[in-house]
Fold this sequence. Notes:
Blueprint lengths: L10 H8 L3 H4 L3 H6 L1 E4 L2 E4 L7 H12 L3 H10 L29 H22 L14 E5 L6 H9 L9 E5 L4 H10 L5 E6 L6 H17 L4 H5 L2 E5 L2 H7 L6 E3 L16 H7 L1 H20 L6 H15 L4 E6 L7 H13 L17 E3 L11 H6 L6 E8 L5 H20 L3 H7 L5 H10 L8 E8 L2 H22 L10 H14 L11 H15 L1
Parallel strand pairs: 3-4, 3-5, 5-6, 6-7, 8-9, 8-10, 10-11
Antiparallel strand pairs: 1-2, 2-11
Helix pairs in contact: 7-12, 12-13, 13-20, 14-20, 15-20, 18-19
The chain binds 6-O-phosphono-beta-D-fructofuranose.
Amino acid sequence: MSxxxxxxxxxxxxxxxxxxxxxxxxxxxxxxxxxRQRAGPILLDLSRQKLDEAALEALGxxxxxxxxxxxxxxxxxxxxxxxxEQRAVLHTALRASGSQLxxxxxxxxLDVIEQALQRIGALVQAVGQGDASDFGIAPGITDIVNxxxxxxxxxxxxxxRALAPFHVPGLRSHFLTNVDGQSAYExxxxxxxxxxxxxxxxxxxxxxxxLLNGGVLRDWISRAYEGDAKAVSRxxxxxxxxxxxxxxxxxPAAQVYPMWDFVGGRFSLWSAVGxxxxxxxxxxxxxxxxxxxxxxxxxxxxxxxxxxxxxLLSLVELWNRNAQGRGSRAVVPYxxxxxxxxxxxxxxxxxxxxxxxxxxxxxxxxxxxxxxWGSVGTNAQHAYFQALHQGTDVVPLEFIGVVKPAHDLRGxxxxxxxxxxxxxxxLALGKTFDEALAxxxxxxxxxxxxxxxxxxxxxxxxxxxxxxxxxxxxxxxxLIALYEHKxxxxxxxxxxxxxxxxxxxxxxSIARQxxxxxxxxxxxxSAFDSAxxxxxxxxxxxxxx
Length: 545
Ligand code: F6P
């Protein structure tokens, strides 16, 4: 990152801390205490970040001077903070029913949200009791397919998998996302069309991938009923803010569940977008997920900055990104149930924060979204951790652990947790050349020194540990809300709109222009650039070979 894009007000702290190894910082127990904070089921440990009390105070002064509380309150109250789309941002209102604090959201919004939750609850109960005919659904459903992409897929997918121990018996969940026909093909070969319920989730109901896959499954179910449209419609529900489009696609009005413009797709798990989750875990658990998120909403609204988990997480990200110049962050959950967390966070953080101008159209003065990547541990240790320990780039990590597992294989779980703790320690402490040399016994002096150099770990590599008491609907809701508010805070601190996503549009419109050239409906490709033309020609040549 160019130096001018780093935060100059933090420069003196960066310089001072460059001379202080994390080994030294970790000796200060008072510092450690400040950097470990709890909210409900979440313990956030920032003590392995390269921060001392003075740097933390500088970050605190920065956030306090930013009027963050007023910005936060404007979001909760439903002010139009997504200015490029002229929309309020009210995902917190979706879970206000679980909050201890009174919601400042507009009454009309709270009312339509509660009505939708009641509708979802009634449907979930009927499906659970085996007769949802009053909701237009065919009898004997055993498999539910959520068709959606981005925010209409990643949240429900993450939560359905994470909460597998809470699944109701007798219903299997599937997710169809990519427009790659392979996935639809495999599903159609695995499932019985007469026992499948398809939920088409699309806020806009214009998304190419979702509508194409919906059409493929509709044809498949239609073949099973020899074209009986009424019978086919009993296998479809839709979730959309564009009810008219869902109806004209063929889902009866009574089977369309609402979304609203005041909820962004990547923040929508808590709405009917979470229908497949509510069906999988039951309404009691779905409400518990909302309550867990609401607990963090209340915490975000009431805790001072130095105890406020979302604020602290955002300040650490700002520190690593803008003061230390780190370009990426690895997220490594030590929980197979959280396999989909990284891809969920990729959309939440990178679609929200990957911006380069302010809402006024001015270029930002600091770097914005880091690249978020990662996968579950311990697998990750055996793939890319070598580079994280000894590579030339420093990549901050986020470890996520669970204290109490949902199984009784204690030996496995202790091994899992010990690895998490060991990796965070090894990254921070490292191993000096002298320590490595003392271990190198074979060979002459020069061979021993060469080996020791290769077995030296620089350490001083920052990480965060997030520890959940257990992986439950409440704690998952809390964890996701924590990240949502961290994103909000970074949007605020970086002076960008975290709630639009114009950057995804250009590729979509070019794909629309290219599509006819692929299906043979466009002979003249001269409007395309030379690389696209050459690849189109190569595809055509191989197709006809
Ligand atoms: O293309 C990006 C995006 O608009 C995301 O923001 C959104 O979550 C996803 O597509 C799906 O959109 P929809 O729910 O309208 O189908």
